[in-house]
Amino acid sequence: DAKTTQPPSMDCAEGRAANLPCNHSTISGNEYVYWYRQIHSQGPQYIIHGLKNNETNEMASLIITEDRKSSTLILPHATLRDTAVYYCIVRPGGGSQGNLIFGKGTKLSVKP
Amino acid sequence: DSGVTQTPKHLITATGQRVTLRCSPRSGDLSVYWYQQSLDQGLQFLIQYYNGEERAKGNILERFSAQQFPDLHSELNLSSLELGDSALYFCASSTPQGSLNTEAFFGQGTRLTVV
Asked: A67: which residues sit within 8 A by CB, 6+ positions away?
């Protein structure tokens, strides 16, 4: 079973920041938080991952709370193309990153 | 484009038949993973191969099998197909040699319809 809890759906206005929360209260010390998204039955796409520090890349920012029990994915300026299901996944670091346990994710709808 | 290639994109077959899905990983990736996505089950991990050897098994049925060849491409074989096997099948690859903590890259999937 997935070790994360996410809201089933969220809306965001185009051009605004989308903040997607994730709870992972049972996360272990060696487990990372990964975010993927899936746009309409396409293959899941990696977004970002982190251990305990906040991370930023060209797609998004990841904010992890100090106790590591929750995190927030931030899309700074959402566009219509960001409409997708977003998955928050907790897994150990190291090799074999593909062995991912997907939950139901959050369906983000970006509206004009 | 993730660099992972899956063929065919669509497949329609009858119950009881056998099909083979093919995956070419990104250049240099040693690990290949197979996932099944059906409407009621979501994305389910099936099996992982690393450099030709089975590394991890998930919820893969006995009617299903996979292998990874010396050139690192992989095939997923589905036999005695049932209506419930209709799903999207995704392949992912990761772990370039010498790297740790890299993300997985997914192909665009094969949509299997069993009629």
From this structure: none
